[in-house]
Amino acid sequence: MAKKEDGMSDLTQIGIVTRYELLKHMRRRRVYAVLVIAAVLAFIQITVRWALNAFPLRATEWASEFFGSLIFIIIIVGTFFAGDAIVSEFEQKTGYIIFTNPVKRVSLVAGKFVAALVSSLLPVVVYYLIGTGALVGIYGLVPVEIAASFAYAILYLCVVLGFTFLFSAILKGSMGATLLSFFMFLLILTTVSSVISLTDNEPWYLPNFAGGMITQVINPLKDTVTKIPNSSLTVYTFYPKFPISIIVLVVYFVATLVLSMWITQRKQMA
Amino acid sequence: MEAIATECLTKYYGKILALDDLNLKIETGHCVGFLGPNGAGKSTTIKILCNLIWPTKGKAYINGHDAIKESTKALRYVGAMVETPEFYSYLTPNEVLSYIGKLRGMTTQGLKLGIAKVLETVKLSEWANTKIAKFSRGMKQRLGIAQVLLHDPPVLILDEPSLGLDPRGMYEIREVIKTVISEGRTIFLASHMLREVQEVCDSIALVDKGKLLVYDRIENLEKIFKATKIQVQLLKPLEPKLVARIEKLQNVQAVVAEAKELSISFKGSEVEQAQLLAMLVRDFDVPVVSFRTFLEALEEVYLQLVKEGN
User: Fold this and answer.
1) Rounded CA gap, A79 and B221, in Å?
2) Which pLDDT belongs to residue B137?
3) Interface touch A92/B75, C-beta < 8 Å
4) Residue pair B75/B166 in contact by the 8 Å Cβ criterion
5) For residues A69 and A155, what is the distance between their CA atoms, to the nearest angstrom?
6) DSSP class of A173
7) Do the chains contact at B95 and A20, CB–CB below 8 Å?
């Protein structure tokens, strides 16, 4: 990182922005809201299975199912914390105060990203803690693959945040950026990857497909081809693979974040 | 060295020309009022200087640093308040000033003293720990001034600093600006309030439709345009006939009589002003209580120039 003449590095400024952005997330109480959502979702999953006394035999099978819901949580928290990150400075005109300081806009975006990542990571960590606790309680063990799953979850969260930051840099309203990102991951990408799979093509290049590694790494499944009886229809089911999924996720993360920084750097505040 | 300089600064918003070849040089230690009607290009110029927008053509400098290419270096010398400032509503003045001060590299001790000082200056000390969400527009305006002053910048760029303030607040802000000027700092002040500009600035840059119409010291402008308004306080109201006679006097352009007050538009030198006063008292037997140059003389200059510009 470049050291400024007055001794203040870009890294220091990123740290300052991160601290005050974290304060924003805390003061708005969004952090607590998503923590509750994550905890409630986790407990529902556990108690329903417990009430039905229907836990699978293998720990990895149940863990794969349990952490499958995490993708939904990641999308919620990612869009929740990043939707207004950049656009709000323009929309609420706070940029007139912050942009007139000797701080690179790239540093501002970086600080905001770190704060959004930390805030979004909290419910994810809580979900993993509850999940691992349940694994110990039910099966008496924690599969080592859970750690790899957690790493994939962080990577997928970075991708969701990256896209949301990009929309936040492009669009003129916080709500638009949040909703676009939310529906893109929850609806649009899911539909597109399903349609592509139906044509016997693996959508390995789509971020949501690669994000499936969160559960695939715990309980690996093989691609399947299912012929529907008395029909000409064939259903192709694909699962993400190592290491291409990591590459795909990293590329999306870096590309969207760099692009959002580039756009913010060039966005005028008329 | 100029504290602020623009060279052929031009800005188009789509097909609309907002700034047309603006050349402006402001020497260090001067206070320049930046005047012009709405849409004249004042805010556009200020936003370019503050790295909020970029010119279509031309250059802008602050203390010799390119305000566009070396914006972080240039902004280090600047305390700026653009339009009505909006702050992070979830923070308190103490927190928002800490945030800005830290980004500018201020030390913890410097911040503590600096924040207390500027909040005292803008009369916000008792609100230091109240969330900004509860602030009125005037209070935000005061906080805007506080963040401008926090790091003791040598160059202050202010866009309508008194907007939204009550008369007392306007007076206090003017006093703050006067103090800053006395410390030898440079001020570039965009305002619609001619009285404010006349009271605190030494020079005026007048823009209209993106073009610089005139840039000179206030006294020079008043001489050039010979636009003086004289306010005469009277013991008793004058007869309309007498008002009509005064209106016909040499150098008098118009007279407005309102109760025990006369407002005379006058084109002439100081000697001729003295002759007018003598004439009013001696020849017309006008019961004069006070006779002084009306503060809105600048208004005449403004109106003449903007009209001519059109």
Assistant:
1) 57
2) 86
3) no
4) no
5) 16
6) -
7) yes
CA dihedral B27, B32, B36, B40 (to 10 degrees): 40
ipTM for the whole complex? 0.89
Nearby residues of B19 by Cβ (< 8 Å), 6 or more positions away: B9, B10, B11, B41, B44, B45, B48, B55, B210
Give me the residue spans of the domains in chain A: 10-266
H helices present in chain B, as ranges: 42-49, 71-75, 93-103, 108-121, 137-149, 167-182, 194-200, 218-225, 240-247, 270-282, 297-309
pLDDT in tens, A173-192: 999 999 999 999 999 999 99
Task: Please name every residue paired with B7 in a beta bridge, in sequence order, or none if there are none.
Answer: B59
From CA A14, how far away is CA A110, in angstroms rounded? 6
Facing residue for B103 by CB, picked from A16, A92, A95:
A16
Residues of chain A short of pLDDT 70, as ranges, are 1-7
Chain B nearest C-alpha distance from A267 (Å)? 8
Of B290, B293, B237, B305, the closest CA to residue B266 belongs to B293
Distance CA A92, CA A112 (A): 16
70-109 of A, contacting B, C-beta below 8 A: 92-104
Between B252 and B61, where is the model more confident?
B61
Q: What is the mean pLDDT of residues B213-238?
A: 80
Radius of gyration of chain A (CA): 21
pLDDT band, very low/low/confident/very high, at B295 (cuts 50, 70, 90): very low
Is the CB of A13 less than 8 angstroms away from the CB of B85? no
CA separation for the pair B94, B130 (Å, rounded): 9
Of B47, B54, B100, the CB nearest to A101: B100
pLDDT of residue B223: 67
Q: Which residues contact A144 (CB under 8 A, 6 or more apart)?
A: none
Q: Is the pLDDT of residue B87 over 60?
A: yes
**CATH code of domain B226-309:** 3.30.70.100
Alpha-carbon separation of residue B161 from B38, B146, B190 (angstroms)? 16, 11, 8
What is the CATH code of the structural domain delimited by B2-217? Answer: 3.40.50.300
**pLDDT digit string, tens, across residues A19-44:** 999 999 999 888 899 999 999 999 99
> Which tokens hold the place of B140?
């935000």
Q: With an 8 Å Cβ cutoff, are B105 and A8 in contact?
A: yes
Tell me the pLDDT of chain A averaged across its residues.
93
Residues in chain B closer than 8 A to A97 (CB atoms): 85-87, 96, 100, 144, 147
Amino acid of residue A259: L
pLDDT in tens, A121-144: 999 999 999 999 999 999 999 999
Interatomic CA distance for residues A117 and A111, integer angstroms: 10
For residue A263, what pLDDT is reported? 97
Q: Residues B5-64: pLDDT tens digits?
A: 999 999 999 999 999 999 999 999 999 999 988 888 999 999 999 999 999 999 999 999
Amino acid at A158: C
Distance of CA B300 to the CA centre of its chain: 16
A269 touches chain B (CB under 8 A): yes
